[in-house]
Every structure is written in C-alpha cells, then in structure tokens.
Amino acid sequence: MLASGSGTNLQALIDTAEVRAHITMVVSDRPDAAALTRAEEADIPRRVVQFADHLDREAFSATLADVVEDSGAKGVVLAGFMRVLSPVFVDRFPGRILNIHPSLLPAFSGARAVEAALAAGVEVTGVTVHFVDYQVDQGPIVAQVEVPIVEGDDPGTLHRRIQEVEHLLYPELVKAFVKGDLYLDGARVVGP
Ligand code: GAR
To answer: What is the pTM of this model?
Structure first.
C-alpha cells in the first residue's frame, strides 16, 4: 500500500480482514503521514521513501519499486498516494497497480480534484477506481460512483462525502484484487 496523507482509505483496507491479511507493507513519501501511524497501530511494516532524497522521478520510482518488491508484494494499492509514478515503477508491476481518485475520471484528474469540481460548478462528481498505467489518472477504469454536489458544499464537506463512498467501494474492490477476481486482461478490466 502506498499512502501520502491521512490514510482513511488505508484504514478502511486495514479494517477489512481479507485485505489486511495481504498487506505486506505501507510505504509513504512523507515521514509525517498519519497513514504511517495507522499502519504502526495495525503492526504493519512501514517504510518512507522521500522524493527529495532522489535526483528525479525515475530514481524515486525505482527505489519505491525496490522497496515494494522486497516486501514480497505482488501488487500495489495506492491509497491517497500523491506522487506521480514513472514508467520505471509501472513496468515492475504491470496491470497490478490500483488507484482511487476523488472524481469521475477523466474529469478532474490531478492533485486537487475536489476543489476543481467545485470551481467548475458541476452538479455531480464522484469516485473512480482504476488500474494505473503510464498516463496520470488515465488507466483502465474498474468502477465509478457518483456523488452529488449540494448547495453550500465546500472542499471539506464535499471531500468527506466522497470519502464515505471511497471507504465502502475500495475495500470491496481491493478484496477482489487480492483474491485474483479483479485483474487486467490486456486493457480490459475483468471484475467480480
Ligand atoms: C482520497 O480521497 C483519495 O481519493 C485521494 O486522496 C485522498 C486520500 O485520503 N487521492 C487522490 O487525489 C489521488 N490523485 P486518505 O489519505 O484519507 O485516504
């Protein structure tokens, strides 16, 4: 599991026994990530790989891939990981990286998807779970769930409702992923 932030999605995955049993390690690019504390409380091995310790994204991605591989993981789940992974990483786990994103991709890709949906004035945004490929936020889509934007929403209220959806959706899909019931066949998603 790779996580950069508060780790509420990571927590939802830790709380899912069928998923927890498969988590070899939590890796963060931020030493202060609350996600690391959640992992510690669950007695899961942890590592920090900082971008600043590397020359460029390729070097960072290579170290990250080594750390993930050394943990024994066969697949990678991004849970609020806020760094772009270069092909150096993606090629090491082809078709075996899942990501969750707080918008209905391809709308509002990138780091500030919740704010962007509000600024665009759309009535509906949502959650996307997708496999990761070379293009940021563009890999094959596994599932999408809509979340309406309501009057008076600010980034905080909207993100909280989005995360409520994430915490139900992601554990179910990651459960299927670790069981081998959710996988990529070429560019085609085969799912439960
Ligand atoms: C989640 O809402 C996730 O969808 C988003 O970061 C949040 C992390 O929250 N991911 C992205 O924006 C990826 N581009 P969490 O740390 O509490 O799970």
So the answer is: 0.97
